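W.,

You were right to be curious about this one. When I first looked at the sequence I had no strong expectations either way, so I just let the prediction run and decided to look at it fresh. Below is the sequence, 949 residues in total, followed by the output.
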Amino acid sequence: MSRYPSSLIVALMTIAPLALSSAPCMGDTSIHVVASPGVLTSHGGETVQPITLEVRHTGKPIQTTLRVGNLPPLETAVEPGVQSIQAYAPPVDSARQVSVTLQAGSQTLATSEIALKPIRKWEIHLIPQSHLDIGYTHTQPEVLKLQVEYLRTALDYIDRSKDYPPAAQFRWHPEGMWAVEEFMRTASDVEKERFVEACRSQHIHLDALYAQGMTGLYSEEELMELMSSAKRFERQHGVPIVSAMQSDVPGHTWGMASALAHHGVKYLSTAPNTTHRIGRVYDWADRPFYWVSPSGKERILCWLPGRGYSWFQWGAVGQYGSGENRLQTRRDDIIQYLAQLEESGYPYEMVQVRYSIGSDNGPPDPLLSDTVKKWNEEFVSPKIIIAANSQMMAEFERRYADQIPIVAGDLTPYWEDGAASTARATVASRQAAESLAQSQILWSMLQPSAPLHERFDIAWHKLIMYDEHTWGAWNSITAPDDAFAVDQDRFKQAYAFDGAILCDALRRDVTQSVAKQTSATADVYNTASWNRDGLVLLSPEQSAVGDLVQDAAGHPVASQRLASGELAFVAREVPAFGARRYTVQPGAAYAVGSADAAGTGISNALLSLEIDQHSGAICSLRYRGIDADLVDANQSSGLNDYLYILGRDPDKNRESPRGPVDITVEDKGPLVATLRIGSDAPGCTSLVRRVRVVDGLGYVELTNTVDKVKERRPEGVYFSFPFNIPKATSRVDAPWAVVQVEKDQLPGANRNFYCVQRWVDLSSDDYGVTWVTLDAPMMQFDPIKIAVAQGLNWWRSAIDPNSHIYSWVMNNHWETNYKADQEGLVTFRYAVVPHAGSYNAVESQRAGRAMHQPLIAVTVDPATAVIEPLLQALPPGIIATSIRPSRDNQGTLIRMLNTADVAQQVQLEWLSEVGDSWISNPMEERVSMAPSTVELAKFEMVTLLVDPK
């Protein structure tokens, strides 16, 4: 009997039929070669290729001798009828025919030939892991308990197999640092020592990510914090962490390459879900490539294994058990997979295969090492190596570096749209991330010696855990009222809301050294890299003494009491990393300015717009220096039109307010003009939109508040922006990059929708707009394309972008995991910033960042001096994304990004005496002395550590 089952023979015949030549049958016997499974084994001390022969014999039973090539003969009995004989062929170095002869004594009964080709010396590098789904199969606390226990179990399996051949020794990948942190927090000293030693030997393999994040949702500094836990572990315990592992999630924002490289990470193994909403990401299956960062100066070796991460899983969700080892049960599939790779032209002998059993959050396999040991004793090829991610990648690179293709671009992710199913929490998370970055800069400006590092770490981790890919339970859609689903949703959204509370507390604490609540004097702080103007709003409590605002020299500043009760003024030329002082005095406001609202129109000296009385959208927008209306009159909607789609067909059940709507003037001007547009809206109890302009500032602010009603049928909520910009080029702001739509997108990238960090710019050669979205991260181009769980037809393979975009603010389109419904008040804010002339990289960055990180007003003791700026404004286009005190309190860490379209030189001019400057990294290592002038390529980042004097 063949040791290879008939299913394998059939499969192999389907994949690669053998070329046969049969001699005339002598007597009543014939022989045919029916299968050669493409493996090598050891037989009789020789390396051989197994083959399966079919013998048809109509005579009496007979003893025969089988000869294949020059291998030793095989004695076998032939029975009447049809039977299979397991035989062996010699391995060959080149394709050739090998004879097969069946003899009885000196008489030849039958002959045939088999067309043999060389058998690759395959190495399957098996990556054992538990896919870290924080929730989904169990509640989040239960997942943490399981994952920590798996680390202890893995240590036992490592000890059990320590005397096995290296390829069969047990290894384990926890996939993220979340459970590792908990293990190190709760373990005994002996357990910790044992664990660290296993990490050093890479039997426990640590990868750089804290969790499996939705990279499109992160800001640039959030993306950096995603790796901070791993790098702190590396520094504390001397365990190099140079690889990252991503599972389940399809696609990565381009800046991921920059962030990984900046953390010393060289390798990324990414294994998406193989079926659910993956679009075309598997265009990269088994095509390892060097992923070049946006600056072009770094590259990461990326590898997407063709069978994803879940090939060996089985059982219902949450059901585990050892059972028969999955390598044994999938043996035929593994060999067939190798045959498919070879047939497709796969050029390498190394193959990456992820190995997780059970289901998501599955356990280590107690039978793995024994099975691999037995496999390798049987097979010469393929060999299985229980591998460590970074070692496997490094070995692949060593062998094939000159064959690996090099690509640059955005692998636009696919799953982030689900964040719109919990829109209020997503808004809170986005706002908190921007606030946290600002608070770190304020910390450096106001009280750098305050011991706040751990509190900032906790706040960052709350936010990155909200953007972790597991939104809820496996039955969040099918049974949304089940306690299992309700509890997980509550736990998940708490990451965002708790993170926001921590951010607010940190803001209060970093300003407490200067703050005085009862004061009528306010210092306005600028955390940006350039001197800037900006609208400042003081609360009714901060401005209770009056409406008159004066600057530090006692000159009146234009101000206005708003309908909200806030006192508004514009702070002018606030220095970068510094402050200006203003005082509220008794008396009337200094009422000057050009802002005006009347009827359905609103304007200032730079722009004017008109509101449609039936839809509440902006039907006309004009800007000084642009000889065109910025609203596309050929579209049925105007700017900021509300759109509701019930169902999954974007061409059906489309509804918008078609009033008349209620338009009232809330703020008449002359400093601030605001129109309030109230209306009914499909899918909502009410919709309130506010449009605001400010004297001297060239943008329109939009604030949209929806009061959502619960709806569990598939639905989507959008705000439409049909701009009139013919032949516009579209650019999307992303972490550490700006992505030009289509041009900068890799094959397989998502083109149905885009994740926006802060802004989208739509520009022709003559004019354009920078559209800033503060609260909603998802954007689509017209026409809207809605995807379903499976099927490539639902996903664009290419796109011809246009100047009609949609902000996609709410949906419940997913079939699992995400929220089935949402209700209540949620506010979405935007800014439209027109510009005469073509795209300006610096101005778009400044517009987006100014809105997301506004000037900060703090009431202070007037007896104290205004702080001096931390350092001079940086060159145009150079952005300080982070400034914070070093962890040893022996310096200041500053991270800068060149957002200009050309290389730039930076010479930091600190306004207090400082010591040496070092090229550093997020681990705060002094890598090399920094030159006096640092040159940054386009989109290059650098981290400097500046010593105190």
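Here's what jumped out at me. The first helix runs from residue 6 to 15. And, maybe more interesting for your project: The first strand starts at residue 29 and ends at 35.

Coffee later to discuss?

I.
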